Amino acid sequence: MRARTRPARRVVLAGSTALVLGLLTATPAAQATSFGPRHAGSLVLVGGGLRDDNSQVYGEIIKRAGGPKARIGVITAASVPESQDPDAADPDRCSNSACNGGYYANLFKKHGAADAQWVPIDLDHLANADSDTVVAQVNAMTGFFFGGGDQYRYVTTLLNGDRHTDSKVLAAIRAKLAGGAVVAGSSAGAQIASGPDMVSGGESYEALRDGSSPGYFDDATRLGYIPRGGFGFLRSGLIDTHTGAYGREGRALRLASDTRHDRVYALEENTALVVDNPGSTDERLSVLGPNGVAVLDLRRAQARTTTAGWSLNNARYTYLTHGDRYTARTGTPLPAPGKKPVIPGDTTPVPVNSDVFYSAANPEGRPYAFRTTARELAARLQTRATATTYETQPGFTVTFTEPRGFTAWSDTAGSPQTLIGLRIDIAPE
Predict the structure, then answer these.
(1) Per-residue DSSP letters for 104-144?
(2) How many C-beta neighbours within 10 Å does residue 93 have?
(3) DSSP 73-111
(4) Based on the domain organization, do 102 and 199 belong to the same domain?
(5) Quick count: other Cβ atoms within 10 Å of Cβ 393?
(6) At residue 320, what are phi and psi to the nearest 5 degrees?
(7) Helix, strand, coil percentages, rounded to 5, for the chain
(8) What's the CA gap between 311 and 306, in Å, rounded?
(9) Name one GO molecular function term (predicted).
(10) Are residues 256 and 351 in the same domain?
């Protein structure tokens, strides 16, 4: 068995039935890129797998929260509550919200924050989301960090009813962001920053085969989404996380197409998408960390479904790495200073890739398979390559093509890092 962290199954959280029904029946009109309320603060969104020693990302959050005066509020309501953790009494094995909150608070102090505190909201403390005492705690903070787990627990704990209104605590955090605070999150804590159609689960192959459905499902492979979305801090595109590590490019493309969004920010592990002026027409993004962020662009893409299955033509894949920037309004990427265009010279064929979305069913699969083929193509003289899904009947072929205007960039000779404008087509076999 290969190591891969994902829930064995997904369940609707206790006490949230009315909310689920409201979310399913109140589907907003599908949309292209949109901007929400303007915020003077900033976002630091990590694709999961944030390492304890990632001083770049922790340092960026602390810097934006005031440097040595930073006070970080840690929210871990996406974790199981203490009452559901069989190891709650063991500090070395516990994984509940309180335990994780203390863990992150200590990390922020270790990385230089003046103070960091757990904000005591979870499924065991639902009333705290509207507590004036907790609101006062939030108002004393200069930055916030949302931990990982299950983003739907954030919906359940911090949003109210089928209208998705803010709890007092979320309203206070939103006001702090509007006033200049930094809001950060990793994995589920980044996902919850989404606007409409926040992903709630699913795997790439099943997404391509079956499409998406509004809701939150017991089947972990089924592509689900919450129509009213998450907190709406970032609305210029959908958000997905753990992208290459879990092979989620396929599900991200299918969800964007089904819900008529024209862009996905597909975040990689241990790496941050930093967003300045979120919600404004001057929204600017940059990448910080050892991996990258894929921008999946569907502005010119066309999807169709036939008896053979679903297909997508003319999407674009831009993969941004450390220091690269991106302007949301125009969809313009800019490689980091010091990176130079890659001049391909390899004449050998692109290696065969028969598991482009790193299937959980393939014990020999490798993570980052989609990115690997894209970079292998960029390093060669050939301008087109294909890869396939591990699953068959039906299988899917992904075609990577270098159209006019495609460029690859790197600060290392001969090794493509940043890719701009690679064409992606997906078709059933």
Answers:
(1) HHHHHHHTT-SEEEE---STT-GGGGG-HHHHHHHHT-SEE
(2) 11
(3) EEE-TTSBPGGG-TTTT-TTT--BHHHHHHHHHHHHHHT
(4) yes
(5) 6
(6) -105, 140
(7) 25, 30, 45
(8) 8
(9) carboxypeptidase activity
(10) no
Q: How far apart are CA 127 and CA 370, in angstroms?
A: 44
Q: Which residues contact 9 (CB under 8 A, 6 or more apart)?
A: 218, 219, 220
Q: Note the pLDDT tens digit of each residue in 86-145.
A: 999 999 999 999 999 999 999 999 999 999 999 999 999 999 999 999 999 999 999 999
How far apart (Å, rounded) are the C-alpha atoms in residues 228 and 213? 13
d(CA 286, CA 278): 12
Q: Are residues 89 and 204 in the same domain?
A: yes
pTM attached to this predicted model = 0.92
Q: Are the C-beta atoms of 381 and 415 separated by less than 8 Å?
A: no
DSSP class of residue 287?
A: E
Q: How many residues does the chain have?
A: 429
Residues of the chain with pLDDT under 50: 1-31
- Read off the amino acid at residue 372: T
d(CA 288, CA 61): 11
| Residue 17 belongs to a domain | no
396, 419 in Cβ contact below 8 A? no
Flag whether 231 is in a domain.
yes
CB 96 within 8 A of CB 79: yes
CATH number, domain containing residue 216: 3.40.50.880
Q: To which residue do tokens 């999407």 refer?
A: 315
Which residues, at least 6 apart from 17, have a Cβ–Cβ distance to it below 8 Å?
none
pLDDT, position 162: 84
Residues 289 and 347 in one domain: no
Based on the number of CB atoms within 10 Å of its own CB, is 357 exposed (0-12), middle (13-18) or buried (19 or more)?
Answer: buried
Q: What is the largest CA-CA distance in the chain?
A: 66
Tokens of 281: 């027409």
Residue 7 lies in a domain: no
Q: CA-CA distance, 210 to 172, in Å (whole number)?
A: 40
Closest CA to 105 of 76, 74, 75, 137: 74
C-alpha pair distances (Å), 20 with each of 201, 202, 227, 229, 314: 15, 17, 10, 12, 35
Q: What are phi and psi of 141, to 5 degrees?
A: -90, 155
Neighbours of 92 (CB within 10 A): 5
Both tokens of 303, joined, read: 């999807």
